[in-house]
Amino acid sequence: MKISIGLLVLTCLVVSCTHTQKKPTSPAGWIKLTLRNNWTIYAPKGFVYKKAQGIDSEPGYIYSKKDSILLQFDSGAEIYKKKDCDFQKSFNEAKASIDTGFDKRFYKIPLVHRASIDTIDNKIATIIKPVKIGDGEVDIKISDCESTKWLAIYGKKLSAKNESIVLEMYKTIRFNGKE
User: Fold this and answer.
1) CATH T-level topology, domain 24-175
2) Residues 6+ apart with CB under 8 A from 46
């Protein structure tokens, strides 16, 4: 009996260590939009990407006339290269911003917005949602620690249906290498 339990535990450990995470695919019919700084995102058919003029970053718009969704984004590179590019460090920085830093002050967490940390494309992403749907912003901030490239996307006053679409779009964000 002890041997079979031991084998079961060992098998579970081997399977969990060798399991590779599949990259999520976009929903059927969605299109790939290539944003600035080598970021991509999938969106429902009918969405358009448009560049905007920036001073020290590269902004733009992602929008759909059909669903009346307008998202603004900004992308760029950090001024300095991080010495210790580390997943745990990125998580700790995101958590500190939510708990006591910029996110807490700017988004008025927890009164107006809720914040969560997720992994998208093997990167730490901070996702902000309004406490009351339609009354606030639905944002994502994600960065590639190694290249120092970052992307922030936000939409304001989205209906429940549109908020759901935008959150699905955020899950498809990918960084496609260094420039």
Assistant:
1) Protein Transport Mog1p; Chain A (3.40.1000)
2) 64, 65, 66, 67
